[in-house]
Amino acid sequence: MKQRSEKIVERIIQEHKDQKKKKNNESATHEDFVDVLLKFQDRMTLEIFAAGSETSSSAVDWAMAEMIRNRRVMKKAQEEVRQVFNKKGKVDEAGISDLKYLKSVVKETLRLHPSAPLLLPRESINAWAIGRDPKYWTEPESFMPERFVDSNIDFKGNNFEYIPFGAGRRICPGISYGVLNIELPLAFLLYHFDWKLPYGLKHEDLDMTELFGVSVRRKDHLSVIPIAYDDLKINSQEG
Ligand code: HEM
Fold first, then answer.
1. Where does heme bind (predicted)?
2. Which of 10, 28, 49, 152 has its CA at a distance of 20 to 30 angstroms from the CA of residue 71?
3. Residue 177, annotated ligand binder?
4. Between the CA of residue 119 and those of 46, 47, 159, 182, what are the distances in Å?
5. Is the ipTM of this complex over 0.85?
């Protein structure tokens, strides 16, 4: 029964799409309810895709850059990830909740580098500046995930000094998905690889210049050399 009704809906959608193609060449266009729904669906899909992709990928980029610059943090986060997933030999979603320190790394990343710094469309609020305000944060310019380890501050907009996802009625509806979309790739990157900078660059000299816009991206692409964990394990067994 379900299959039959799905087929009927699919046929209606296809008919409307075909008609739309035909109508594009004619001046007078008449839209019915299905046409409007199709338009709405396309826009929604696009908007949700846009809202959820660059925000998370820019956070992953900044988290990696901060950890590469702060070797102590990288070591601690990597040890945690490997300790949690070593038995399984691979990273999976189920183990992410055990990554207490990595979760703090993500929080600290979004404090210093909120993906939507001006909380668009609320241009009057600057989450970037609030996250670095010395009234609320000790050593605000330092990357110290420890500040979140035993703290109650979360992403839900209850603490106005920390609002990377906004607050109140229009708070980001994609928080859980967005955060997982940062934590999971980071866990993969830290589990499977060690990271070093090319051309003998010093970690502490890594350029962190920001490029401001709707989002705050790195001005320069992050170029890093991955060293596979499997190779490291083999080398340490041989040596
Ligand atoms: C790191 C990831 C993300 C960050 C930092 C982020 C941040 C934000 C911020 C600051 C807002 C504006 C809140 C306000 O106006 O007060 C927002 C709104 C929104 N976000 Fe996100 N977001 C992220 C991921 C996502 C994902 C994954 C989705 C969807 C799957 C999503 C969907 C939306 C939508 C639909 C709105 C508009 C809500 C409204 O106006 O009622 N976001 N987001």
1. 172
2. 152
3. no
4. 19, 16, 15, 19
5. yes
